[in-house]
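Below sits the subject:
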Amino acid sequence: GWGVVDVNYSGSTGFGRNYRDRLKGSWGLADVCDCQSAAKFLIDSGKVDKHLIAIEGSSSSGLTALLCLCNSDIFRVAACRYAVTDLISLSKSTHRFEKGYFNYLLGSMEENFEAYNFRSPIKQVEHIHCPIIFFQGLKDNVVPSEQTFNLVNLLKKSNLIVENHTYPDEGHGFKDPKVKIDVLTKTERFFNTHLGI
């Protein structure tokens, strides 16, 4: 079976305002550090096999998962659903609510352009070394499908093992139970294959 760690990384709700504000200006840093630390703790404690560590995320946590791959070799395989991959592009195209959220998480792009650039996985493709499976709804109005397509193309050019699955009638956050089952089935198959289970 699978052991699952659902990391309440910096910025998660339910732990008070101070804990939530730890992510303010630190998206792509504090959350990534927390996920890597959780995996390292489990490895060091002997509770998991260091050769069988996977990571997954969706939307903003998809960005967290991808940056974990950019900054360490702890994770051997990954799955991303409608993940944020390019903060600069997304800040120019997303709706007003998300744009305000970016200002909270990163500051204004005018004043923090380097942070937007450095914390965009698409700008760090050369640091990713493991197989990744992607899932994207083609009616996504929050994270456009181009975000996934552009990253997938760059990863393929780097000769990495990549799968990309699209769903014509899904938006941001999959709703159809059949699609949800398909995503889980394909994710498990991909993990089993590339972890050698």
